[in-house]
Amino acid sequence: MRITIRKMSSSDIQEFYQAFQNQGWDKPISILKRYYEEQQNGKRDVFVATYQNEVAGYATLLPNDEHGAFANQNIPTVCDFNVFEPFQRKGIGTAILDAIESHVRQYNNRICLGVGLHSGYGAAQRLYIKRGYIPDGSGVWYQNRIATPYQPCINDDDLVLYLSKQL
Predict the structure, then answer these.
(1) Angle, CA 100 vertex, CA 22 and CA 12 arms, to 5°
(2) By Cβ atoms counted within 10 A, which residue in 31, 77, 112, 153 is the most buried?
(3) Residue 51 to residue 135: CA distance in whole angstroms
(4) Which residues partner with 54 through β-bridges?
(5) Among 151, 156, 142, residue whose Cα is nearest residue 67
(6) Three-class SS string for the chain?
(7) Distance set, CA 133 to CA 26, 38, 40, 110, 145 (Å)
(8) Is-contact 55 12, C-beta < 8 A?
(9) What structural domains does the chain harbor?
(10) d(C-alpha 31, C-alpha 54), whole Å
(11) Structure confidence by residue, pLDDT tens digits, 143-167
């Protein structure tokens, strides 16, 4: 198979950073370093996809997220899910989610995630719904808080809807 999923290695930090730069995203390298350190400390799992031996994307998994709709409920949360632009529409996102869900099934029967609401998240929104993720019912969140009805907000990456799935 051309897609493989593995744990993050220290060399991935620079590869991720460069991939984000190549697509015009300003992703601080400090976040990527933190992901690797948290994986080493058992606080986060990082699932890396390679496509024909090139790093194609990744997603992280927090066993117990401290933020969002499922905060401190011991429900594993998928965070920061990215498939780099040259590798999109090749089944990589599906392969990453397959690996994460298989991993989570070993210790929990539920998984959750937050998805952005602007059009840049359209493919992710469709993928999650097709895979059986459903809204949790808490409504829209903005900057890690429930957005109250008629509250002004900006349709940026901080405007999310939380979804969950029974495994």
Answers:
(1) 35
(2) 77
(3) 31
(4) 51
(5) 142
(6) CCEEEEECCCCHHHHHHHHHHHCCCCCCHHHHHHHHHHHHCCCCEEEEEEECCEEEEEEEEECCCCCCCCCCCCCCEEEEEEECHHHCCCCHHHHHHHHHHHHHHCCCCEEEEEEECCHHHHHHHHHHHHCCCEEEEEEEEECCEECCCCCCCCCCCCEEEEEEEEC
(7) 29, 26, 29, 10, 21
(8) yes
(9) 3-166 (3.40.630.30)
(10) 21
(11) 999 999 999 999 999 999 999 999 9
2 φ, ψ (degrees, to nearest 5): -80, -15
Model pTM score: 0.94
C-alpha closest to that of 27 among 57, 64, 62: 57
